Every structure is written in C-alpha cells, then in structure tokens.
Amino acid sequence: MAPSSPLPSLLRDLITANHILHHASIVDGYGHISIRHPDQPSVYIMAGYLAPAVVSTPEDLIEYHIADGAPVDPNAKKGYSERFIHGEVFKRFPGVNCVIHSHSEAVIPFMVAGVPLKPAFHMAGFLGSSVPTFDITPLYTSTSQRDMLVNSVPLGAALASHFASPTSPADSALPDNLVVLMRHHGFTTCGQSIQDAVFRAIYAHKNAAILSNAATLRAAHGLGSGGLDFLDEEGMKGCRKMNEATADKAWRGWVEEVRAVSLYRNVMLEEEEKQ
Ligand SMILES: [Zn+2]
C-alpha cells in the first residue's frame, strides 16, 4: 500500500457506513455495502458474514476479485453469498466505487403492489423518471433453489444490466439508473463515493415511505388512485445535482449519530481519536 493510499480512510468510512445504514433501517441483519479498492480497481471490499451493525474492524472485511467474486485470500473467512451483486456492478461500471443492497421495508411494497417508485420530493431526484425492476424468476432453471438470492456471476450480471438504459453504450463508466428494484427482494443502489451511495439508499427508502403516506392520505380522503404529484424531469435533474453537491453535510451528521450509539463500534475511528 502506498503511503498516500486513501484505503485506510475508506475502510474507516465503510465500517461507519454499515452502522449508518443499520441506524436508518436500510439494512437489518441482512443487506450489505461494498467499496472498490482505491489502489486495485479490480478488487472490491465488503464485510464478511456479519450483521452490518456489528462490523467494527478492518479484520471484519474481505477483499474479492471483481472478475469472479473469489476472495483475494483463498483462506478468507465466510462471506456474503450475494457479493455477486456488488462485483458485477463494479465490473460493468468502472466509475462506480460503492454499491449498497437493501431489503427496505418501505421500498418492497412498491414491487408487491406493482406501483412505480417515482421521486416525490427534492431529496430523491436521483431516482429518475423510471426505476427499473430486476426479476430473477425467468433466470431460474428447473433445478434452481428459488430463494431470490443473487448468488452467482450470471445473476449478478443480469441485475447489473438494469443499471444501464437500453440505449446506453456498453462501455459507459457510470450507470444511467442509480437504483434498481429487485422483485420479491429489495433494491440495489450505487455511487462514485460511499457518501453518494449511502445518501441514495437512505433517500430511496424515505421517498418510498412518503409516497405510501401520500397514497394512504388520498385513499382516506376518497380521492381515489393515481393523482400523486411527482418531480418533473427538469426538477429531477436539478435536485440530483443539488443532492450530489450537499451529500457530504448529511454524511457528517450521520457519522456523529452512529458514534453516539454504543451498539456501533468502529475501531479505526477510536484509534484516530486516541492520536
Ligand atoms: Zn438480498
């Protein structure tokens, strides 16, 4: 590792991001976040087989090859079976440096109900006008265990393809879609930084909750289905720009929130404080 490598600070932030996502109900005992290795772009890093709330040291993290999802250390401890979600998004989009997978209880109802997830407010312009849905079911064979898990390179690649629009060049470094819904499962989002991806995961979840509340209000007032008021195209673009320029402020606040909760330990942060 070069002396100037950003790796230590990224590992510190990755540990804290696990806690922030747990604190915001984006992950519970399941769900995960990964980063691309800043010095080895063909490697990604994520927690081993641990609940996100208890990830606390760099030893809890595992490095994987993007090519096939194999651990860099063949003797690595057990990891997540769904790491292929992460590896295949990193493989398809070289500009993506962070991937998050969630079973958000606010987002899943949209797939169950067949209702499109659209941006309701200015914190969710990144959703765009149409959030694609990945359906794993047609990819199963007669012998598959139909558990909805994206636990192989082909399944991960199929999911990753939904981050590109049909007209996008195959070599685009960045995805056209920043959130992909996963039928009977949850959603995946990504970013160029941990901060961007965490922001999107949290506000995809909050946006879903707001839409559900709005639909409930309409129904309670006898206003019928439809009629929800979404951001327009220009609003989406403008809000996305604003969100990307201000995500650092929210991040700093979330870091302090989880530092104040004794459940969450980040040994790297604790060592920094001692210095
Ligand atoms: Zn999952």
TrEMBL record:
Keyword Metal-binding (UniProt): yes
Annotated InterPro entries: Aldolase_class_II_sugar_metab (IPR050197), Aldolase_II/adducin_N (IPR001303), Aldolase_II/adducin_N_sf (IPR036409)
GO MF terms, alphabetically ordered: aldehyde-lyase activity; metal ion binding
SMART domains: Aldolase_II
Pfam families from the UniProt entry: Aldolase_II
GO biological process terms on file: pentose catabolic process
Coiled coil residues, start to end: none
Keywords tagged on the record: Lyase, Metal-binding
Any single Gene Ontology cellular-component annotation: cytosol
Boundaries of every Class II aldolase/adducin N-terminal domain copy: 12-212
Protein name: Arad-like aldolase/epimerase
Organism lineage string: Eukaryota, Fungi, Dikarya, Ascomycota, Pezizomycotina
